[in-house]
């Protein structure tokens, strides 16, 4: 933050004009820290992390009928590695420092917003321990109907409520910036922190999707499609999440959204660059894919962390299929871009089924929207226009909008009549819908091939008993040894 202030000063921008600060963050990423020392007790566990899979399976197994949607009526979420409660449970079970701090009542839990606000408002010297409704709604400990932590949910996960942050609205003054030892000048000391939104909710606000039925898709590390459903939560029958979209004021009503979450979007570009080395930068991906203009029948399912919406299948793993001797790295690059678009198509189809009203255009934002080939592919695969704003970083914009509109700051209004039109670029579909449907059907076939690759459950024989032959190498070793013994006895008998 100090470096930002220095940069603004270099640009001849007076930092005394900064009236408020907004916070936006990865929603489910989990932090536990010691309130006495102010230090984290373990590395943050990010939203994509799969180490909690065994914890998830244990939690699902204790539900009636082993139903992953057992808590959905309160949380809007399936039991999944994605959400914070499972990560917190894992930390309590596997990290001694966390367990001891919880027992001795020194532990504080939060998503990254809570950690930032606590540190920036004083930390161990009176820092404010809070979160907003959008981040709380991604923990699986929060009742989206009562808009508060739920004692039954906390009991189910075995998490003491005293370590949880206070839940606030997305737009109000939480506290003032304080000088601390980690910041030399404290240039922003005394400035109110008055906006807090999970990143996808912030993008929804930044796209000004304040009307029921409006939707946006953010292309970042993952891909997140949110559709405003108004003042009442809508439960999905097609694998989507029900989440709190925003609550723009202490006395304002909460607004809800249906969400389709895709784990791997921009992350596939990084994988092609760092792991395979077929591109040197994200800009190269567009050029490489455009050089062939087709995947040549190659399909790429980047299920590196399992499949999220609409499948919620943690056992899936990434596959590239449909390869021929003519497939080259350019076709793989094109298939990677198509994979982002096909995953968006899947969640849009689910959203249209849940709402009953098909979306007529898709508003988009995020870093990957600078890839014009991707945007055109998205319009072609969805068969509807894709609209990209001239300022794609709408997540930061949404947090700023919430901070500036807070009571006690009020540098602007978020009333519909006070909002201005945003300049944008529109990508129209350019291929035959039949071609789009054919490619989408092939993609669905590839997705089925990616499922059921990983499980922590041992393979059992027909009697329900674990078989030594569930390990193929061990089974072959034992069978080979038995054959050698029989052969040795046979040869000895001939002598």
Describe the structure.
The protein has helices at residues 2-10, 53-61, 72-75, 84-94, 96-103, 112-120, 133-136, 151-157, 199-206, 266-276, 282-290, 329-355, 372-382, 394-405, 433-450, 472-494, and strands at residues 21-25, 30-34, 107-111, 130-132, 142-143, 148-149, 166-168, 171-176, 192-198, 215-219, 223-230, 241-246, 255-262, 299-301, 319-321, 362-365, 386-389, 424-427. It is of the alpha/beta class. The longest helix has 27 residues, at 329-355. It is globular and about 65 Å long. The N and C termini lie far apart (86 Å).
Q: Main beta sheet: strand number and arrangement?
A: 7 strands, mixed
- How far apart are the termini? 86 Å
Which strands sit side by side, in order, in the main sheet?
Answer: 12-13-11-10-16-17-18
Structural class: alpha/beta
User: Would you tell me the overall average pLDDT?
Assistant: 90
Structural shape:
globular
Proportion in helices:
25-40%
Low-pLDDT sequence parts = 466-474
Radius of gyration (CA) equals 25 Å
By DSSP, the count of extended strands is: 18
The proportion of strand residues reads: 15-25%
User: Helical segment tally?
Assistant: 16
């Amino acid at each position: 933050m100090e470096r930002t202030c220095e940069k603004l000063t270099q640009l001849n921008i007076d930092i005394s004009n900064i009236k408020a600060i907004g916070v936006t963050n990865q929603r489910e990423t989990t932090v536990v820290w010691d309130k006495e020392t102010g230090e984290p007790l373990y590395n943050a566990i990010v939203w994509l992390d799969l180490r909690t899979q065994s914890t998830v399976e244990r939690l699902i197994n204790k539900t009636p009928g082993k139903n992953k949607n057992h808590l959905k009526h309160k949380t809007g979420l399936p039991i999944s590695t994605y959400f914070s409660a499972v990560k917190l449970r894992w930390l309590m079970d596997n990290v001694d420092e966390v367990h001891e701090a919880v027992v001795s009542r020194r532990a504080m839990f939060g998503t990254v917003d809570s950690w930032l606000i606590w540190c920036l408002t004083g930390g161990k010297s009176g820092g404010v321990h809070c979160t907003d409704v959008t981040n709380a709604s991604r923990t699986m400990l929060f009742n989206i109907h009562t808009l508060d932590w739920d004692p039954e949910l906390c009991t189910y996960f075995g998490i003491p409520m005293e370590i949880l942050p206070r839940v606030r609205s997305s737009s109000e003054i939480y506290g003032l910036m304080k000088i601390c030892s980690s910041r030399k000048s404290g240039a922003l000391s005394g400035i109110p922190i008055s906006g807090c939104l999970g990143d996808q909710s912030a993008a929804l606000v930044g796209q000004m999707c304040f009307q029921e039925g409006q939707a946006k898709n953010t292309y970042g590390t993952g891909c997140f499609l949110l559709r405003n459903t108004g003042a009442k939560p809508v439960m999905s029958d097609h694998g989507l999440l029900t989440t709190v979209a925003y609550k723009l004021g202490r006395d304002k009503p909460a607004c809800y959204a249906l969400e389709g979450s895709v784990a791997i979007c921009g992350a596939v570009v990084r994988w092609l660059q760092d792991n395979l080395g077929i591109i040197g930068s994200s800009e190269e991906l567009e050029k490489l894919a455009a050089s062939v203009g087709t995947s040549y029948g190659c399909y790429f399912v980047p299920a590196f962390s399992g499949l999220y919406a609409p499948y919620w299948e943690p056992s899936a793993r990434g596959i590239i299929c449909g390869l021929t001797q003519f497939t080259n790295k350019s076709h793989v690059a094109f298939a990677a871009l198509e994979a982002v678009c096909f995953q968006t198509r899947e969640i849009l189809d689910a959203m249209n089924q849940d709402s009953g009203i098909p979306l007529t255009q898709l508003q988009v934002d995020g870093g990957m929207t600078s890839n014009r080939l991707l945007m055109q592919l998205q319009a072609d695969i969805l068969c509807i226009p894709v609209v990209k704003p001239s300022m794609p970083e709408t997540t930061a914009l949404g947090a700023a909008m919430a901070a500036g509109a807070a009571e006690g700051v009020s540098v602007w209004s978020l009333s519909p009549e006070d909002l201005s039109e945003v300049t944008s670029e529109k990508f129209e579909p350019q291929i035959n819908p039949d071609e789009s449907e054919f490619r989408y059907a092939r993609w669905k076939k590839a997705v089925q091939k990616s499922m059921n690759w990983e499980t922590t459950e041992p393979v059992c024989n027909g009697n329900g008993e674990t078989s030594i032959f569930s390990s193929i190498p061990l089974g072959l070793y034992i069978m080979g040894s038995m054959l050698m013994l029989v052969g040795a006895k046979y040869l000895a008998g001939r002598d």
